[in-house]
Amino acid sequence: MKISLEWLKELVDVSVPAEELAHRLTMAGLPVDEIIRESERFPKVVVGDVVERIKHPNADALSVCKVNVGAEILEIVCGAPNVAAGQRVAVAVAGALIGDIIIAKRKIRGIVSNGMICSAQELGLQGGHEGIMVLNTDATIGQPFREYLGLTDTIFEIDVTPNRADALSHIGVARDVAALYETHVIRPEVKFAESKVLASDIARVEIQNPDSCPRYCARVVRGVRIGASPEWMQKRLQRVGIRPVNNVVDVTNYVLMECGHPLHAFDFGKIGGKKIVVRNAGEDQTFLTLDGKNRGLRTDTLMICDAEQAVAIAGVMGGQNSEISENTADVFIESAYFNPSSIRRTSKFLGLSSDSSYRFERGTDIENTVYAVNRAAQLIQQLAGGEILSGFIDAYPKKHEPKRISVRTQRIGAVLGATLPLDEMTTICSRLGFNPAKKSEAEFEVAIPSYRPDMESEIDVIEEIARVVGYDRFAPRAPNISVRLPLRSAPMPEDVRGVLRSLLSAHGYCEIVTSSLIDERQANIFSEAIVRVANPISSEMSVLRPSPLPGALATIARNIHHGTRDIRIFEIARTAERTESKDSDVEKRFSEKEWIVVASCGNMLGSWDAKPRSVDFYDVKGEVERVLYETRVHKYKFVEDKSNVFCDPSLSVIQSGRAIGAFGAISRGILKKFDIDVPVYAGMLETSALPSGRAIPHYVAPPRFPGIVRDLAIIAPVEKTGQEIQEAIMKSASSPLLRGIRIFDVFPLDNGTRSVAFSLEFAADDRTLRDEEAADVITKIIKDLEQRHHFSIRS
């Protein structure tokens, strides 16, 4: 947002240096990104007088000119067809910077040129591009070109945050300046003569959608003369980045930049039935906008129509069928308030943004519509003549009710860390236009003006007080923290995310945070039930990720491409997929989950006396088991999952008959799609299946009596997993004496079988076991395995 300091000082009495004002605005929440001084423009560009022009002896398209620049007469080679003796021109002498070129003496076809006669385009000014810029004949020879143009202003480039729509104008910024410097805003007074004809007698307004358009004001000016705006207005518009068009259109843009309310001027002679109807677009409509594009409309697009057809897209852009032209005689001025959500939807859908939509979708001032339309009528009458019809049309079906907020002085002190006098706080609120009313010594109430829709609660008012007072006035203070230590019998529960972060970070994993929005082609790799975003920022962020793997794999690929190949990462990621539900409740048509995903590749870090080794399947299996143990997940099992196309091999984590996660080696096909050339192992678990809190260690006394270890080799079909055989052994034993079991060997045999050897540990808490007791349990195990499971024992 560009703000002219010259214009601003007409609206508020402030005389501090530009740097100080910029600093105060920045500290008050309106950051000034850049200060542009017009007095620094066009260095070494002066007004010159073309004394003589002759044809270049060596080039038909060039001229050799003698130009008086005040201190001397320069010989300059010029290629412009319109250069002539007796003209006053803009001359860039040696050392001037024009665009990206530094002007210097140089030979052009054998003749030395000592500068350049400039065109408006070369100087970055608006104007014809046919040739050089010809100045007024009264221009002073040798005068700096910036002085000739009257460039004395200073421009602030302000980065206005989305919640401060009220600051998108000179009056809006002036309100903040007035509050900061304890002065007041000088809003231009509106006075004009009206004709005896009532505007309401010749024009009507009907609002069919009051939710999207709660207010619509209008005035009619008859008998105008369309032409160029005066120089002062053109300069002001150009300084804030707006191209002058004609006196009527320029007035609407001028009022926009002055008071922040968008206006639109219609050629009243082109309004069918002399009636304006605010309604939604019909089915399959298109509309030709001012920029010459035919745009398709949705049924919920709010339109401004006459009795016969649409004439503008409400709050966004007008149409060619009602635009102001050189033949316009009567003008219909629109000043309306549109619902921000409606304008935002339309602007995003059409991919069309304008100065008007930019403000409407952030929230304009519904009570400013009358002032804006009257100010525009006043300026149009001054610049284009004509008569202003008596009265204005005001369709206002939904009246604005001022919001009132109670503010507690104790709360202000608690938030700001300092006690402010009640009178000072109410005075600040008064300067901000909040109309404070004291309720007691401990509380006051403010009435929020219509131009501050961002003020919603007590904390917003406190923030306003703080920024006007100045944050540097509040001394830093450490917060008071009260900690209650839990009793030993009731340990404080931990958030499972904190447990996971602590656990995995301690084991050398780095946490990553990736976007939940990904490319649709990437999403289709992992799911067919993808959830598309209605208004994506870009095609690369058009779909909600259906799996936590894309972010991890993209991170691994990026690191590999930058030379890092030993990678261990984790992420807590949310995913979304469509369900089969046809329920009217949108939330039931989508399934959202949160996962912890771990991924690794390259080498495990070795110590000084051990060589590094490659990450393998059992490393990721170990991490999954560690997570399950530390989060107190019990009675789970690993089941081979051949349907998992992402990992090969792949195991699912099953608990209570439900898959709560999976792990394995990412398939080569997936790795190829992410341009990864090394094996990657990954595991993921639903965080909702992990109990909240870390596993609490308990003391277990060491065994007092020695145990007995026996080995057992079982021949089973290759389809049987080691886990299934182990579970069968535990169930067959059904004895408290069997304290531990582990696989120590797997050996393939013929006929689709293999030998799986287990080490069984037996012990008792109250005695030393005899060999016979262990042998009895083993005999029972063997008998049950042979009869029930048809396994055999390898001798």
Please provide a written account of the structure.
The structure is a single chain. By secondary structure, this protein is of the alpha+beta class. It has 6 domains: 2-32 and 159-180, Phenylalanyl-tRNA Synthetase, Chain B, domain 1 (2-Layer Sandwich), CATH 3.30.56.10; 42-148, OB fold (Dihydrolipoamide Acetyltransferase, E2P) (Beta Barrel), CATH 2.40.50.140; 194-395, Phenylalanyl-tRNA Synthetase, Chain B, domain 3, CATH 3.50.40.10; 403-473, Phenylalanyl-tRNA Synthetase, Chain B, domain 1 (2-Layer Sandwich); 496-689, 2-Layer Sandwich (BirA Bifunctional Protein, domain 2), CATH 3.30.930.10; 708-793, Alpha-Beta Plaits, CATH 3.30.70.380. It is built from 20 helices and 45 strands. Strands 30-34-35-41-40-39-38 form a 7-stranded mixed beta sheet. Strands 3, 4, 5, 6, 11 and 12 form a 6-stranded antiparallel beta sheet that branches. Strand 19 and strand 20 form a beta hairpin.
Question: What is the gist of this entry?
Answer:
It contains 20 helices and 45 strands. It is of the alpha+beta class.
Number of strands: 45
Structural class: alpha+beta
Rg measurement, Å: 39 Å
Uncertain segments of ≥5 residues (pLDDT<50)? Answer: 487-493
CATH superfamily of the largest domain: Phenylalanyl-trna Synthetase, Chain B, domain 3
Largest sheet: 7 strands, mixed
Specify the CATH architecture of the largest domain. 3-Layer(bba) Sandwich
pLDDT average, as an integer?
89
